[in-house]
Each structure stands twice: as structure tokens, then as C-alpha cells.
Design a protein that fits this description.
With 363 residues, this protein is an alpha/beta fold. Helix content is 28%, strand content 24%. The strands form four sheets. Strands 11-10-9-8-14-6-15-18-17 form a nine-stranded mixed sheet. This is Riboflavin biosynthesis protein RibD. Its EC number is 3.5.4.26, 1.1.1.193. It catalyses: 2,5-diamino-6-hydroxy-4-(5-phosphoribosylamino)-pyrimidine + H2O + H(+) = 5-amino-6-(5-phospho-D-ribosylamino)uracil + NH4(+); 5-amino-6-(5-phospho-D-ribitylamino)uracil + NADP(+) = 5-amino-6-(5-phospho-D-ribosylamino)uracil + NADPH + H(+).
Length: 363
């Protein structure tokens, strides 16, 4: 494999990224078909997961796919579902070579796609830009390998780590550019998650606004007793799906109210401090979610941190100090030793208007 191969695979990865947040429970895949150094077809997984990237690229390439090379960010599927296997489609189109970034860990594929291609005489090269591909597929890999989605915790705070004054006033700590970026980030995730405290305080819509995404994220609210305001959330079921995680003690009347509106209810076990985070994440993974964007608040965010289910931190920090009497971005973690604090590695720092965006990945 050479630099031209790497260049075409980078293009395929950039195409795959267009599917993030829109294709769950499927992976976001990109495909580029090249004949004699010229791109003849390209595609990415479409909203809802169909059609697949390879099918889109093959349809665009038509007869030019014969003898060509296909660059695919994930092993072509080998199982019959709603559509025939992509590996079978590549063979039928006469593709001579397939370069894939990584093997698909889904047990229905797991090497079978590559084997199907080789059995048909197609040259297969694996592992090109695999690290980049695995990074892009972090959510899909998490669901397949851990049974839960990749969880990103977003915190928008003052320089001293506060999210609101003691009175609760918080609009706005960060500027309009940062808030616009948050909406863009929401669109790249399958779901937006908040705790009951945030829902009660803000009655947020939790939708992507400012532009029209291909698919609105699922809105997930974790509230043990379903004691939620019946305002904007209740009046927006036509805008985006709403899933409510609750405990066994949630009143029947509240359950009926939300079910009648069309919300999906998820009953989960409760601990001493409310809903338990690991069962919540397993339940979301079982429903097909691969990437979840958590927007707090402080106590709920701390519960996720304590449970060890936060994979990524996304911080927006403003150049303002609110002081020790303001509300912290994170509730108590109960740490007794610094060595026990969860550690994350810095992966990005970007200026957003007058604020700073910083992203961190769990070690």
C-alpha cells in the first residue's frame, strides 16, 4: 500500500464521518472506488443505516467499478439483512481489489466479508489507517464489544469550573459561537442525555437547532420518579424521539402521561443515589445507540464519572470567574486519594469565539 492508497482512504474516512449520529445502530462507513487513478464512485452510510456506503459508491460507479479498487473504512458486510451483503455486491460489480481500514467486530461479519471477497478472487488489503478508522468507529465498537454506547460528557463552564450562580442563573456563561458548536456536536451523536435535575430546572428541548440535521438525536432523560415538567419536552414529541429512563417507583399516572404522548419508557434499577449508570448504558446499547452526548447537570454528570462510563470529556471554558459560591460543573465524586481521580488525555484545544473548546479521552 502506498501514499495514493492512504489518500483515498482518508477521503473515505471523511465521507464516513458524515454519517455520525445519523446511521445507528449501523456503523458510519465511507467508500471510494478508484479506476486508473480516477475516482468513479463514492458513498457513505445513509440516514437510518441504509443504503450502505459500498452500495452508494457502486451505484455511482456503474460499469466503471469493473477492475477498480474500492477503499472502505470498515470490512464489507457479509450477512443478509434488509439488503444483500456488500461483499457480494463488490464481487458482482467486478471490483478487482478492496482496501479496508479494519475488520468488523460484529459477529455476523468478523472476517467473513474479507473471506468472501478473497474466495471470489478479489485482492484484499487490510489495516490501512486502522487507528483513524477505530477512532471514528469508537461508538460502534463500544456497542459491539462492551454492550454500551460511547459516552461524551459536555461541560460548559466558567474559568473556575462553575456552571451557574448560586441563584441558578446560567444564561449565558459561554458565547454564541460555543453554543452553535454544541448544536453541531449534538448532530454527530445518536442521543442527547440529561438527568432529571436539568430537565426540571430548564425543561430543555435537547434538539439540534440552527440547521436541519438528517436525523434528530434521540432525547434521553434519566429521572427515577418521572417528576418532569410537562412543557417543552412534552410538547415536542413530533420534533424528536424521547426516551425516559425511570425506576420502579415512578407513579403510574406519570408513566401513562408520557406513554400516551409517544415517549419510550425504560425501567431500570435504582441505587441509593438514583438510577444506576451502568444498567442505563447497557439499556441504551441494547436499543442500538452507539454514541451518547451527555449535557449534565452536575450531579448526574458526577454519577456517570463515578460509574466509570464516561469515555470522553468535551469542555467549553469561558473567561469569566464565578467564585466558590457558584454551582460546580461536577458534583461530588467521593474521592479520598488523588490517585483515584479519573484521568483523561488531551486530544484537542480550539478557540471558539471568545471561549476555549477542549476534548479529552479516557486513558
Amino acid at each position: 500500500m502506498n501514499e495514493a492508497d492512504a489518500r483515498f482512504m482518508r477521503l473515505a474516512l471523511s465521507l464516513a464521518a458524515r454519517g455520525l449520529g445519523n446511521v445507528w445502530p449501523n456503523p458510519a462507513v465511507g467508500c471510494v472506488i478508484v479506476s486508473q487513478g480516477r475516482i468513479v464512485g463514492r458513498g457513505w452510510t445513509q440516514p437510518g443505516g441504509r443504503p450502505h456506503a459500498e452500495r452508494r459508491a457502486l451505484d455511482q460507479a456503474g460499469a466503471a467499478a469493473r477492475g477498480a479498487t474500492a477503499y472502505v473504512t470498515l470490512e464489507p458486510c457479509a450477512h443478509h439483512g434488509k439488503t444483500p451483503p456488500c461483499a457480494e455486491g463488490l464481487v458482482a460489480a467486478g471490483v478487482a481489489r478492496v482496501v479496508s481500514a479494519m475488520t468488523d467486530p460484529d459477529p455476523r461479519v468478523a472476517g467473513r466479508g474479507h473471506a468472501m471477497l478473497r474466495a471470489a478472487g478479489v485482492l484484499v488489503d487490510e489495516g490501512l489507517l486502522e487507528d483513524e478508522a477505530r477512532d471514528l468507529q469508537a461508538g460502534f465498537l463500544s456497542r459491539i464489544e462492551r454492550g454500551r454506547p460511547w459516552v461524551a460528557l459536555k461541560l460548559a463552564s466558567s474559568f473556575d469550573g462553575r456552571i451557574a450562580l448560586a441563584s441558578g442563573e446560567s444564561q449565558w456563561i459561554t458565547g454564541p459561537e460555543a453554543r452553535a458548536r454544541v448544536h453541531a456536536l449534538r448532530a454527530q451523536f445518536d442521543a442527547v442525555l440529561v438527568g432529571g435535575g436539568t430537565a426540571r430546572a430548564d425543561d430543555p428541548l435537547l434538539t439540534v437547532r440552527g440547521f436541519r440535521p438528517p436525523r434528530q438525536p434521540v432525547r434521553v432523560v434519566a429521572s427515577a420518579r418521572l417528576d418532569l415538567p410537562r412543557g417543552r419536552l412534552a410538547g415536542s414529541l413530533d420534533q424528536a424521539p424521547l426516551w425516559l429512563a425511570h425506576g420502579a417507583e415512578a407513579p403510574r399516572e406519570a408513566r401513562r402521561f408520557w406513554q400516551d404522548l409517544g415517549a419510550e419508557l425504560i425501567e431500570l434499577p435504582c441505587g441509593a443515589e438514583g438510577l444506576e449508570a451502568p444498567p442505563l448504558m447497557q439499556a441504551l446499547g441494547a436499543r442500538g445507540l452507539t454514541r451518547v452526548f451527555c449535557e449534565g447537570g452536575g450531579q448526574f454528570a458526577a454519577s456517570l464519572m463515578r460509574a466509570g462510563v464516561v469515555d470522553e470529556l468535551i469542555g467549553f471554558t469561558a473567561g469569566v470567574g464565578l467564585g466558590a459560591d457558584a454551582r460546580p460543573a461536577l458534583g461530588g465524586l467521593g474521592l479520598e486519594r488523588l490517585a483515584d481521580a479519573p484521568r483523561f488525555d488531551l486530544v484537542e484545544v480550539t478557540r471558539i469565539g471568545g471561549d476555549v473548546l477542549h476534548r479529552w479521552r479516557q486513558r
